[in-house]
Amino acid sequence: MKAVVIRRYGAAEVLQYEDVEQPKIEPTQLLVKVRASSVNPIDWKIRQGMLSLITGSKFPKILGFDVAGDVVAVGSGVTRFKAGDAIYGSTSFPGGGYAEFAAVPENVAALKPTNLSYEEAAAVPLAALTALQALRDQGNIQTGQTVLINGASGGVGIFAVQIAKALGAVVTGVSSTKNLDLVKSLGYDRVIDYTQQDFTQDIAQYDIIFDAVGKRSLSQTKKVLKPNGIYITTLPGPEVFLESVLTAFLPGQKAKFLFEKPNVKDLLFLKELIEAGKIRVVIDRTYPLQELAAAHSYSETGRAVGKIAIAVSN
């Protein structure tokens, strides 16, 4: 099969399109003909070697966590899927989605939303699960609460607002001037243009601040967080890690971070919201698998609006 592999850590040019063997599935896995994948920041952070203590030095590696495609074969222990099913879901760490075929664990896959293309479906799993688990599990979001999302037009932010609205929250989004119209169209009740205003100096206070781009900390947002409010980030630096430890044992404001955990229950929940028209997918650009290096380079600029999709096969 064709796949994009890395044989060392480095810049985007280490991504090489070549022939490799098809994966062999385990009893609890699906062999999926991958129709589409997508780019998430963790993909190029792994490629750069930023997580090498976890990902190790064994090469070659195929990256890419998000997949959408068709089941070709199932392991002997699989009960929920059969050959021919269109699915979306996640590959095991550190990836495998940047290939014509992928081994996908049954417990991190679900039937593809019927109203999405393969490219749209592949844009959902990691980013939307991150948004859902941040707001629902870490933030304990409740109907009527006020939520601020920093990074409102990014890959996670576009899902965060729609999920927060579906769960009954009043949502403020922080974005740049050029993306304000898109942000408003996603359902934000209020938008803040960060080129004109620093949201940490706002007069409003929020129950939850979700920093979907990891640019702030609890100490920087305390003024606009309610006394018992929760600050959540997807990129825990040393300061946030320390704040999370300290606030866990003290009353008042909390700092939390999360690592997304793929699971069937949440994929099915997202599928219901998508098919009900409560979540739409925003794709900035679609690249063919052969041009994955260019897709990574674009993601690294931080200017993508929504997700970057990868078309793998027809």
Structural description of this entry:
This protein is globular. With 314 residues, the chain is α/β, with parallel strands linked by helices. Strands 3, 4, 5, 6, 7, 14 and 15 form a seven-stranded mixed β-sheet that branches. The protein has a six-stranded parallel β-sheet with strand order 10-9-8-11-12-13. Strands 1-2 form a two-stranded antiparallel ribbon. Helix 7 (218-221) links the parallel strand 11 (206-211) and strand 12 (225-233). The two termini are 14 Å apart. It has helices at 41-48, 52-55, 118-122, 125-138, 157-166, 180-185, 218-221, 238-248, 264-275, 292-300; strands spanning 2-5, 16-19, 29-39, 66-74, 86-90, 101-105, 109-111, 146-150, 170-175, 190-193, 206-211, 225-233, 254-257, 283-288, 307-311.
Descriptors:
314 residues, alpha/beta, 7-stranded mixed sheet, 6-stranded parallel sheet, 26% helix, 27% strand
> Which range does the strand content fall in?
25-35%
- CA radius of gyration: 19 Å
Average of per-residue pLDDT values: 95
Q: How many strands in all?
A: 15
- Calculate the terminal CA-CA distance, rounded to whole Å: 14 Å
Q: Which structural category do the helix and sheet elements fall into?
A: alpha/beta
Fraction of helical residues: 25-40%
Shape: globular
The number of distinct helices, counting runs of at least 4 residues, comes to 10
Pattern of helices and strands: EEEHHEEEEHHEHEHEEHEHEHEHE
Major sheet: size, sense and barrel closure? Answer: 7 strands, mixed
Low-confidence stretches: none
